[in-house]
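User: Show me a protein chain along with its predicted structure.
Assistant: Here is one chain, sequence first, then structure tokens.
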Amino acid sequence: MSVALATYNGERFLRCQLDSVYSQTHKNLEVVVCDDGSSDGTINILNSYKKNHGLRLYRNEKNLGFVQNFAKAVSLCRGEFIALCDQDDIWFPEKIEILLSEIGNHSLICSDAELVDESGNVISRSLLGGSGHYAETDDQFRFFVFRNYVTGCTTMFRRDVADKGLPVPKGAMYHDWWFATVASTMDGVKCLDMVLTRYRQHPANDTGASVRLGLAGKFRESKEKKSASFKREIEACASFLGSGVFNEREKSVIRDRLLFYGDLNESAIHFSAFRIAFRHRNYLLAGRSIFFKLAFLLGSLVK
């Protein structure tokens, strides 16, 4: 069992996270850390855990960014199962034991998390319950192409997901979204309705509950931010298509997402985006209220 941890200037919360990892009830853990050029005390902390716990530490020669840093950490893991680990959260002691017992035949499992602030005070008791993102569908792949409820710090997957999903495309915005999408083409994703992580929210988050707005959030952004967001989405879709991972049916769904954002970015009246949103409405808007669905479809038609 491997833990893939990506670090960058994480000295403030790193000891707390590592202590929670090494306090797991499942003891047979390999902890692999890739540091992305930290300039604070992160390396000193990691070296102490390397000495005392056998942590495997790798330091990047140049900054890769959090997505590719995670991809490198995953690539260096040797376990049959790989859990993703942020540098600033807190794991419940039984987290790994429960995930291993609950994954069954699925390729990837994620769980719920409670949101905490910088001091560890609870902000929300449920990440999934508060976000409205999680919904069961009959086509997980199509769901994950348009939406994502998998958060990296709650996630564990089988080695064959890494084998199929590496390298992570350069244009991928989130490593967890990528691995969840890959897993949805295999034996699927299981979402466990159980809080096993304290997911820390603070201004230095690379990504967090407040950062990942999702499709609806993009319509609330300023014109400049919208355009930048749409361009990142277009780049991500193009990189997915060029990855060589997906079959023709899966590529056709990804092309629809690409066309959706292309139309939003380029035209004032979004006929193509509206048609695509309506075609995939049961996945794009799964679990949403009727009011939200109508508002979103109308928002996809007019800028």
